[in-house]
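Explain this one:

_____
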Amino acid sequence: MLWPLAWRVCVPVTAGAAVGALAADSLPGRDLGLVITLAVLVALVLLFTKLKHAIESSPASETRFGIREVAIFCGIGIWLGFIVLDGATYLLLALVLAVHMPLVEANALKTLALIPTTAVALAVFAADGVVDWGMGAVMGAGGFAGGVLGARLAASSFARTWVFRLLVIVIIGELVQLAIHYVFNTA
């Protein structure tokens, strides 16, 4: 991994996550739910644009990181702290499309960047007493297992095709869950 690049990505994305978590902490639950639904729809639309081709093909140019990328990653960080939902997808897309990283390296850097952003957001929410630690432990274990499987998948020869397919499946699953939530008014 390119450690200097990792630092340049992690700093703005983590600062943004702090801002986003503070904003989410002050927003009423129903409003937050509507923003989440919109975010999932945007993610699904983005996947079916030319981004599929961009994800599947390694960039031809060298990696770059300037003020534009700092702004992009700060914005993604705000989103990660605000909602988290699909933020990792946006982070991966930015690393591949804006920074021009190959998919496997971008996936590794994305995973690294999620550590400080998660820690900062968790600290904000824990300070407000809104963290369900039991559920969080279960989700953390599932995330760890999924991360191990995902890392193995990303290193495989068929990664580009399956990354896109898995993103589509996850996003459609999120939409179904949100639809059930709103139709049946579940808590």
Q: What stands out?
A: The chain has a mean pLDDT of 83. Residues 3-183 form one domain.
